[in-house]
Amino acid sequence: MWPLRLLVLGVLAAGTAEAQANSSDGFLEFSVGKFTYFLLSRPLPQEAILRHISSNVTFLLFQIHSQYQNTTVSFTKTLLPGTSGTGSDRGLVFILRPEQTMCTWYLETKEAKPVQNMAIPLSYSERDPIPGGCNLEFDLDIDPNIYLDYNSFETTIKFAPANLGYARGAEPPPCDVSTGQESRWRLQYEVYQYFLPEGDLTEASLLRHLQRMAQVPQVKASAVKVVTLTADDKTTVSFSSLPGQGVIYNVIVWDPFLNASAAYVPVHTYACSLESGDGSCVSPGRTSTKVFSTVFALLGLFVCFFGHRFWKTELFFVGFIFVGFFFYIIITRLTSLKYDVRLVLTAVAGSIGGILLVASWWRFGTLMLCMLCVGLVLGFLVSSGIFFTPLGNLNVFRDDGVFWVTFSCVALLIPVLFLGCLRILNILACGVLGSYSVVLAVDSYAFTSLSYITLNVLRRALNTAFRGALLRAPFQTNDFIVLAVWGMLAVSGITLQIRRERGQPPFPPHPYKLWKQGRERRVTNILDPSHHIPPLRERLYGRFAHIKEFFQREQPAGERTPLLL
Q: Where are the transmembrane segments (predicted)?
């Protein structure tokens, strides 16, 4: 099985050089700038050799990658502190001595099964900056690695500052003696992000796409630059987590004085655990989420096409969203209940909120209050969509006060703009909100970035640290399809309801007034057939009596006289 797997990966890596694994000598031989696939097994470290190093090369960056299994790369055969790195994406910088033409590393793994790896040595000259050359935080003296940490809200990457390049045999430039243009403080750091195909969790795909993120020209051509840091900034960047979506990050350090660049070791994540076996990466949503979102989508689909005609159903839908959203935030921040319990409680609270909104309309008939709720929910979606664009990544919105005030103003603007045409506002809300519920349901079965339009706002409300995360999501084939379906449903629902309601009253009459007028009419008008209908209490008593008679034994008909002897 493993030889076959290796053969497949070798075919996918066509155009790259393969490692010349000499089983008799027990080492792997590499070439500069060439990717190599190989298997690592547990028993003994594997020696890696690079020969014929050019004299104009000052330092080498050797990096090794696997999908999720840990691999150790070391300068020495015996692991010593500060001479090795362990992980799924790790690398070492080797400063070359004068006249040195060969370099050696040692590779090993502690995994029980053989680990498929891909490695590449990269060469740099004395003009190029040294990634991680001014490391003061991590174990290695020179640490070119990017350290990644994630949770359900955000993914954070950290890296060590770089140093200026220098010739073989020379002393390295000091890191913190001065801050002038002749020191490492002139360096800039460009952070790049690259999305893997949606739903693709295969090892072959990951290793193939990592080849585009290892060298400076390929990184600039393939990935998107999301932020540029100076030497004065913290070497830490946060992104919104996308569970189940593969993402590769890399940092390019640039020397503007010499116009020279070098790349760190790229790092990848799926924001979930592939080795846990719980299916969290394969399936975007839990069973409880699928049930909740499916029922919610069916209700939303009904509202999308018939919401204005069935006014009370729409009010229940809006009240459910309004109360359920705030209730979920409160119980998540104040309690430590499990997700499934919180989802059930949210469904109950949302249902109560929907019933209360319907009851307030039935009893008091306050149209403006109901339309304010409808407009606010539509405004919430519109405001979320605006902050889903690159505008949401502006530094001014990192402040919670500025963000929430701006967000609320945009949400309030929608009901204000449609104050003179409430029926149009209601039909728009039915079409847009009802169709978006289908988008949320699709996300629980297949990944789509459009669900993060509202989920990012929910995350920010739940986690204060999320304000510093850069909001980026892929827009690939699935998203184009879901966007087309969303637009088609919204336009169809709005058009159908506008045509159907033409010539009809804008809104239904006040239900309580109709009920009260009907009751008074039945009391005063004896010619009204409903006047002769018994009161509700007598009708219920009659029903119970009928049910009671059903369970009683039937009495025999006629008269029977006992026989006299």
A: 291-308, 315-331, 343-362, 369-389, 401-420, 427-447, 480-498
Residue environment code for 488-513, b if the CB has 16+ CB neighbours within 10 A, otherwise e: ebbeebbebbeeebeeeeebbebeee
Helix pair 287-306, 311-334: axis angle to 10 deg:
150
Q: Does residue 535 register a pLDDT over 70?
A: no
CA distance 227 to 189: 8
Q: 208 — alpha (psi -120 to 50), left (phi > 0) or beta? A: alpha
Give the number of other CB atoms < 10 A from CB of residue 254: 20
Give the span between the Cα atoms of 76 and 84, in whole angstroms. 8
Half-sphere CA count of 309, side-chain side, radius 13 A: 14
| CB of 117 closer than 8 Å to CB of 70 | no
* pLDDT digit string, tens, across residues 519-532: 776 666 555 555 55
Sheet holding 103-108, edge to edge: 20-22, 27-30, 46-50, 103-108, 71-74, 84-87
Classified as helix, coil or strand, 213 is helix
On whether the CB atoms of residues 191 and 197 are closer than 8 A, the answer is no
As a whole number of angstroms, the distance between CA 157 and CA 455 comes to: 22
At 470 the three-state DSSP class reads strand
Length of the chain: 565
| Other beta carbons within 10 Å of 324 | 23
Give Dmax (Cα) for the chain: 139
Q: What's the pLDDT tens digit per position in 340-397?
A: 999 999 999 999 999 999 999 999 888 999 999 999 999 999 999 999 999 999 999 9
Produce one character per residue of 57-73: b if its CB has 16 or more CB atoms within 10 Å, e if not. bbbbbbbbbbbbbebbb
- Yes or no: say if 73 and 120 are a contact pair by the CB < 8 Å rule: no
Q: Which residues of 151-178 are buried (b: 16+ CB within 10 A; e: fewer)?
A: eebbbbbebbbbbbbbebeeeebebeee
CA distances from 143 to 79, 135, 147, 185 (A): 16, 6, 10, 18
CA distances from 221 to 194, 200, 214, 552 (A): 11, 22, 12, 87
- 21 band by pLDDT with thresholds 50, 70 and 90: very low
CB atoms closer than 10 angstroms to residue 427: 22
CA-CA distance, 528 to 519, in Å (whole number)?
11
